[in-house]
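Researcher: Please predict.
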Amino acid sequence: MKSLINELINILKENDKYTSESKLLKNKIAEDALKLEPTLLKLLLKSKQLKKHFFQIVDDLLIFDKIKFQRFVSNKQFLPDSYTSFKNKIGLTANGEYLTDSKEVVLVWPYKDCVLEGGQNEEDAKRNEIFWNETLAPDEIDRLLSAKAFTNWKKYDVDDEHKLSDLANGQRPSQWLNSLDFDKENLIIKGNNLLALHSLLRRFRGKVKLIYIDPPYNTGEDSFGYNDKFNHSTWLTFIKNRLIVAKEILSSSGSIWISIDDNEMPYLKVLLDEIFGSDSFIATNVWQKRYSRENREAIGDVHEYILVYSKNPKKFKIERNLVPINEKQAKVYKNPNNDPKGRWRTIPLTAQEGHATKEQYFEIVSPSGKVFIPPKGRCWGIAKATVDRLILEGRIYFGKEGNSQPNLIRYLSEVEGVTPWTWWPFDEVGHTDESKKEIHALFGKVNAFDSPKPERLLQRIIHIASNENDLILDFFSGSGTTQAVAHKMKRRYIGIEQMDYINTITVPRLRKVIGKKSQKGEELFDSIKYDEGGISKAVNWQGGGSFVYCELMNLNQNWIDKIQEAKIDKELDVLWQAMQEEAFISYKVDFKEFDKNAKEFAGLSFVDKQKLLIETLDKNQLYVNYSEIEDEDYKFSDDDILLNNKFYEVDK
């Protein structure tokens, strides 16, 4: 084994693609193996030993055993760096299954003081941006996905912020709780989106009409600004866990729309086929995200994709809305005869023969007396009685001279819309510069969102896939564009976001959408100041409405927050001592081995120490389960208990 490892290490170090500062890039090697990357295969074939071990001949063909190879490089004996070595010693070993066989869960912890900063400037580039993730095996998630308890409930409307209990107005709790209907409220949740999704299942299973998400693109350069990026398999597992539960929340005719770029689109498409079924595929929309050229690129990247799936494509086709006609499309409508009904155009009366009946073959006589019959291979598209009526109404056009092939007159005022296409140009749905301006207009220049989606893009998606009062879900809420547009379009919505900017960007943005009553001194007036940007004018938005905010009740998540907020090694040492006494530590951790190898722990980098302490925590105990809400140790208020019982529809 040892000689084979050495042989592989020496061969791989011949190519800079697999090394960084003389260290092998283990994830890149495994990833290229799964993709059958020629560069990697050529390297391996240079060694007789490696060729014999990882290749076999089948019918004169040389076959690479990529599964065997990946298991080999995933083995803890291959490149056991100091971090991995220490982790193995204290019992935190990794699981090496593959996506198709795995039911593992991937949790993520963005590094909080510099996460989500796209487009780094020189100062930002010096910051150590990390996106931690952890893979949990099925036997470790017995409590993890149970419904969680919520806390810090608030309601926002034009009268400002309220604690929900303050809205009782002197009523007994049972009275004001009865008036609270979570099926009609807009909801914003702070917490891990996977766990929040599972918490929504009890009340919202099968009730969401539209899910839109804009997840991390796994590029290392997109809106999730992290250098320690996912490999494909981990990213796909991360997405898969969330899509499986999202499917359960979606209504029988609901649809899911996912923004993605070239980096992961092909992989995501295959994954969606697996989860929803290939027959549930609706379309791959192409959004032209920018209009200016970037000369630094080999070929300019001007588009992203929006993959669309529905649980019932036939019902989706019947229920989906047409796209309103735009002025460019309306140009073909003229009014040469000053028709009082306005602009019009002609539509051919003929159709393909297909399954035509005898009744669709008849003569049409123009006012000038000229007789017309359908051309060869065609028939009239409507019945004779209808044609006769339309002639009397002046709805059949025979040309300027009254003796040309008959056509139907279609008035612009009668056009409900057009069938959506998969090409979405920037002049119709906006571009990234437009979306930046929308955010900057609300908050000034903020680095957290380099490329948010424009409101017009979400307007089109929400218009096509839902109607007023339908429920919209976005569990990667980010800056809150989905919720802002849904609110203006009179849809109900649920947004989930785990990052702290939910309280500095997301919630404040929605409060601006709702608006606030004008105030002079302590007196409030009915006139409302609200967000007039984005699609506000297009939909005649005037402000108003409300939403409820709540948070998953932290448990071990509090320790993760403290670990991520630490700045120096000494703080981590103090935290570890406290964690051993107060935190829920994974059963895998061997405390004796930890103490025995304390010098090795001390020698790790600060970031590796942070990462390792996070891994020692039991992820089943990130948040308090709803089933334990009355446990006195967690100190839930009476109002929190009442509200959780109401949310989960438990009568106590």
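Model: DSSP finds 25 helices and 26 strands in the chain.
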